[in-house]
Amino acid sequence: QVQVEESGGGLVQTGGSLGLSCTISGLTFDRYTMAWFRQAPGKEREGVAVINKHGDHTVYADSVKGRFTVSRDNDKNTLTLQMRSLKPDDTAKYFCAAALRPNTYYAGPSLPDESDFGGWGQGTQVTVAS
After folding, report:
1. Which of 26, 77, 92, 106 is deepest in the core (most CB within 10 A)?
2. How far, in whole angstroms, is CA 106 from its chain's centroid?
3. CA proximity to 80, closest of 65, 69, 89, 94
4. Rounded to whole angstroms, how far apart are CA atoms 103 and 25?
């Protein structure tokens, strides 16, 4: 059974930075594309960033491109999201998830749908104050 735990959220001022982490167990981590999603109140969950199993290809939502950086440590089964120049529109609960099938690859530029991912955790709240 896949277990996911996100951490690192909090309250930050506009223009500030924050780092999120996600640890995953129950799967062979280095075989799966991983992704960060977020869901703001009253909105659907949307993709933020995707990283392939080797960590050498990433895709970002246009809204975060140049400000967010996704990375992974396959030795530690850990996914991270470094966020800078945060805006109030970044306020949301952030989730990490694994592709449902191993060895999938997303070339971009569009992000995959959340239905292609699973292992959803509780998420971690990011609030950006204006």
Report:
1. 92
2. 14
3. 69
4. 17
Tens digits of residue pLDDT in 14-60: 999 999 999 999 999 999 999 999 999 999 999 999 999 999 999 99
**What is each CA distance from 122 to 1, 6, 61, 95, in whole angstroms?**
15, 7, 22, 7
Residues 6+ apart with CB under 8 A from 115: none
Amino acid, res. 38: R
Give the length of the chain: 130
Q: Give the position of tokens 């992000």.
A: 111
Query: For residues 82 and 68, is the Cβ–Cβ distance under 8 A?
Result: yes
Nearest to 124 by CA among 37, 39, 45, 8: 8
